[in-house]
From TrEMBL:
One of the GO BP terms on file: proteolysis
Record InterPro entries: Peptidase_S1_PA, Peptidase_S1_PA_chymotrypsin, Peptidase_S1C
Keyword tags: Hydrolase, Membrane, Protease, Serine protease, Transmembrane, Transmembrane helix
Membrane spanning stretches: 122-145
Name by which UniProt lists this protein: Peptidase S7
GO molecular function annotations of the record: serine-type endopeptidase activity
């Protein structure tokens, strides 16, 4: 095996090389800008010399892969005209992926929209119908069908000028615990309502039909009759209702009442007198009427055919014979309580 340090001994010196004809010169030695790319370290010389001399290597000197690589016949080794660069391959794959996505997008845009199948249409109709039914059921749960009917009746009654004027005297009584109905009985701001509407408070907020607000003091309270009287602060010229001198209605007589049920305001409705009945907690009998009374109607004025107040709505009752009925305290109780508390 030759000495690596003498591997160029057969080459002539550079000066002697230039004396030779150009066609006989070594092309590498004749290149002034030649730069040797591979730098071999001393430990590599043994391998280099073996390759240079064409010797066959033992497996003990190289691992199995290197052994077969170096001893494989030259005509069987794959020849690559251009070595693959990993970065070039990655760029090529990215370009192919971008082209594929662009082609897919173009096909999607050009393709006509698919018409929904019969099954899809049927499913949409079923879901829509279920949503409508569910919404309707939710509304009925909040407002029973009879409660929806009373809004229609209120709209019809409100066409009457008398009822329109009466609604202006009906107010909302607001406390931290909730709200109820009341009505003005004097131009300077005397208001009548139920005791349970203002119970626990000496001063409450009053909202008129035109949304004006003012404070009022509780000046009279009669728990045994569920009545209370309020006085507004420095108010005058308020629309008011007239109290009847005494309760005088008979069974079957028509009545009208106006209140703020189920979060509505100024709802007018009508009913018919049934008759007196005693209830627990009140000293005197109250009057039953066949009428749609709901939460929020407490404190509503009950009017006779002449537009005078004959009572105050305070509750409902599930009667064994009459079913669900409204209850109102007759105006006579106010007069009686005032006389007894003079």
């Amino acid at each position: 095996m030759s000495n690596p340090n003498d591997r160029h001994d057969d080459y002539p010196d550079r000066e002697d090389e230039r004396k030779l004809p150009r066609e006989e010169r070594d092309p590498i030695q004749d290149t002034d800008d030649y730069i040797e790319e591979d730098v071999w370290e001393p430990d590599d010389w043994v391998v280099w010399d073996a390759i240079a001399e064409g010797d066959v290597l033992d497996e003990e000197e190289l691992d199995e892969d290197e052994f077969h690589e170096y001893n494989e016949p030259a005509d069987r080794k794959p020849v690559s005209e251009e070595p693959e660069d990993p970065e070039d391959e990655e760029i090529r794959l990215l370009v192919l992926e971008a082209q594929r996505e662009a082609l897919l997008k173009e096909r999607t845009e050009e393709a006509p929209p698919r018409r929904p199948s019969f099954g899809t249409k049927a499913m949409i109709w079923i879901i829509s119908l279920m949503m409508v039914v569910s919404t309707f059921a939710f509304v009925l749960e909040l407002f029973p069908l009879s409660a929806v009917d009373f809004l229609r009746t209120s709209s019809q009654l409100s066409q009457q000028e008398t009822v329109q004027a009466q609604k202006e005297s009906v107010v909302s009584i607001v406390t931290p615990d909730g709200s109820g109905t009341g009505f003005v009985i004097s131009e300077d701001g005397t208001i009548l309502t139920n005791h349970h509407v203002i119970e626990g408070y000496d001063r409450v907020s009053v909202v008129l039909s035109d949304d004006r607000r003012f404070m009022a003091d509780v000046t009279e309270s009669y728990p045994e009759s569920d009545m209370a009287v309020l006085e507004a602060d420095d108010e005058s010229g308020l629309p008011s209702l007239e109290l009847a001198d005494a309760y005088h209605l008979q069974e079957g007589d028509p009545v009208t009442f106006i209140g703020n049920p189920l979060s509505f305001r100024g709802v007018a409705n009508k009913g018919n007198v049934i008759g007196p009945i005693r209830v627990n907690g009140l000293e005197e009998p109250v009057i039953m009427m066949e009428a749609p009374v709901y939460r929020g109607n407490s404190g509503s004025p009950v009017l006779d055919s002449d537009g005078r107040v004959v009572g105050i709505v305070f509750a409902t009752l599930n009667h064994e014979e009459e079913g669900t009925v409204g209850l109102f305290v007759p105006v006579d109780e106010l007069y009686r309580q005032r006389l007894e508390n003079q």
